[in-house]
C-alpha cells in the first residue's frame, strides 16, 4: 500500500511537469561499447598476445551486439597517457572505485578489463561505466584461468554478462506502479531474449543539467567524426547520480523498443521532482539466480553485534506479499543468508521493534550486500538526517566546482575572442549556480527543522552554509561579468565602434576574472596584450608594472610556500597524503599571509574546491565494515574539517580591506 501511494504522488508530480521530456532517449542511436584493456607487464602478456586477445573479444561480443552498436577494444599500453580519456586516467590512478565518481555523460559505454599473470594463472577483472545513464556495474567480475588459449573466451563471457542495455523512462498513464522505458537503440533491430527479457532488472540514475558545456561527441558507432556547426554553442552538459535502493523490473517487452517495468524502492518518492533534474535513465544489471547474503550495517560499530536481533525476509514477489517461512533469512556470524535461491531481484524486508524497512536488492553474486539499518529507531532517524546532509554537502561542493570551471571557461573563451560564447557560458553558469543555491538552501532549511539531528549535524550544516555563502558571493561576481559581456557583445555588433575598443573591453573583463581567481601570471599576460593594443595608455602600463611588483616573491620562504600551494599540493591524490600534507599546507598558508599575498590565497580557494571533490571521490567507495577503510574515513573527516577551517581563515584574509 505504501508503494502504491508513493507512485500516485510520483505520477502526479511528473504529469505536472514531465522532466523526462528534456532527455533524448536516442531510440535510433547505436551504442559505442569500448573495452579498455590494462595489462600488467609480463613476458607472457606480450603485444602479440594482447593483439590476439583484442581480436577474441571483438569476435565474442560483436555478433551478439548486432545492430545495437559497435565493439571497440583499446589497449592502454599502445597509447601515450596524454592521449587517454579522463575516465581512463582516473581508472589508471584509482582502479575500479574511480568508476563510482559522478561525471558528465558522454554517451560511450566503457568496460575496463584488467589482466595479470601471477602464480601460474591469468587473472582477469572487469567492470563497466555507462556514459549514457551515468551508472557503473555494481560489482567487479573476477575470473582466473590456467590456459592462455582460454583468456579470450573467458574475457568475452565476463564482459558479455555485464553488458548493460540502457534507457530513458517516464510514468505510464493510469499505472501508478509502472514506468515505460524507451531503450537506447531499441528501434535499430529486434530485441531477442539474450538482450532483454521479462524479469530483468535495471538500476536507476537521476540526470541533471550542469552549467558546463556538453563534451563533444567522440564519434558515431561507425567511426564518423561528428563536428559541431561553426559558431554554435555546445548544449549544457548532463550529469547523473545513482538512485540507491531503487530498481526497475521488466514486466513486458514491446517490439517498438520499449519496456514496461514495475518500480521497487526503499523511498516514499523514488523520483522526486527538483530543480535542474532533466529526467531519469536506467541500465540493465547482470543479475543471476542464486542465494543472497546481507549484512546490516550500523553507524555505531558498538551496535553492530545487536543486528542479529532483527528479522530479515526476502522474496521475488514484491513488497507487501504474505509472509512465508521459506522467505526467512538465517542469521549466522553476523550475516543473514537466504534459505533458497532468488531470481534476479530480492525484495528484502528488515524488521525490528515494530519497524519494517524495504530494500530491493539485485542478485548479482554470492558476496554479502551491506544494508544501512539502525537497531535503535532514534539512531536510524538521525542517520537518515545525516545522510541527507552529507548528500547536500556533496551537492554544494559540486556546484562550487562547476562554478570554478565556469569562470575558467569564460576567461578562456574571451582569450579566444569568442565573446558571444563567453556570454552564453557565463549566463548558463550563473543560472545553474543560482538554481543549485535555491535547491540546496531549501533542503538545508528542511533538515534544520528536523528534531532528529546527529551530533555531527551542526558542524556539517555550518559547513554547507559557508559553502553556499561562497557560492552566492562568486555568483554576484559572475553576474557582474555577464552584464559587462552583454555590453561588450552589443558593442561588438555595432559597426560604428572600433574593433580595438571592443577588444580592449573584452580583455579588461578577462583581467577581472583572472585577478578575482588569483591567476596573476595569466593576468600579466593580458596586461601585456592591453599595452600592445593601447600603447599610449600610461595607466595600463602602470597597473601592469604594479601587479608585477606585487606578485614578485618577497623572499625564498615566500617563493617556496607559493610553489607548494599552487604546484605541489594540488597533486595530492590519496587520503593519507591529504592527511600528511596538513602541516606543510598550514605553514605555507601562514607564510603567504605574513607577506600579504592575497593573490596566491585566492587561487588556493579555487584549488580547495577541486580538492573537496577529489576527497569525496576517495571516500565514496570505502567500506564502513573494513578496519582499514574506517581509518581512512576518519582521516578524510579530519582533512575535510581542517580544509574547511582554513577556507574560512583565507576568505577572511583576502576579503579584508
Could you please describe the fold and organization of this structure?
This protein has 657 residues and is an alpha+beta fold. Among the domains are: 31-161, Rossmann fold (3-Layer(aba) Sandwich); 289-375, Immunoglobulin-like (Sandwich), CATH 2.60.40; 376-497; 553-657. It is built from 14 helices and 21 strands. It has helices spanning 2-16, 47-65, 86-94, 151-161, 377-415, 419-449, 457-492, 499-517, 520-533, 538-551, 556-568, 575-594, 598-619, 627-655; strands at 31-39, 69-75, 109-118, 121-130, 135-136, 141-145, 166-172, 175-183, 201-213, 236-253, 258-265, 277-284, 289-290, 293-297, 311-315, 329-332, 335-338, 342-343, 345-352, 355-362, 369-372. The strands form 5 sheets. Strands 1, 2, 3, 4, 5 and 6 form a 6-stranded mixed sheet that branches. Strands 7-8-11-10-9-12 form a 6-stranded antiparallel beta barrel. A 4-stranded mixed sheet has the order 16-17-14-21, with no helix packed on it.
Short characterization:
The protein has helices spanning about 1-15, 45-65, 85-95, 150-160, 375-415, 420-450, 455-490, 500-515, 520-535, 540-550, 555-570, 575-595, 600-620, 625-655; strands at about 30-40, 70-75, 110-120, 120-130, 135, 140-145, 165-170, 175-185, 200-215, 235-255, 260-265, 275-285, 290, 295, 310-315, 330, 335-340, 340-345, 345-350, 355-360, 370. With about 650 residues, the chain is of the alpha+beta class.
Strand-helix topology:
Elements: H1 2-16, E1 31-39, H2 47-65, E2 69-75, H3 86-94, E3 109-118, E4 121-130, E5 135-136, E6 141-145, H4 151-161, E7 166-172, E8 175-183, E9 201-213, E10 236-253, E11 258-265, E12 277-284, E13 289-290, E14 293-297, E15 311-315, E16 329-332, E17 335-338, E18 342-343, E19 345-352, E20 355-362, E21 369-372, H5 377-415, H6 419-449, H7 457-492, H8 499-517, H9 520-533, H10 538-551, H11 556-568, H12 575-594, H13 598-619, H14 627-655
Parallel strand pairs: 1-2, 1-3, 14-21
Antiparallel strand pairs: 3-4, 4-5, 4-6, 7-8, 7-12, 8-11, 9-10, 9-12, 10-11, 13-18, 14-17, 15-19, 16-17, 19-20
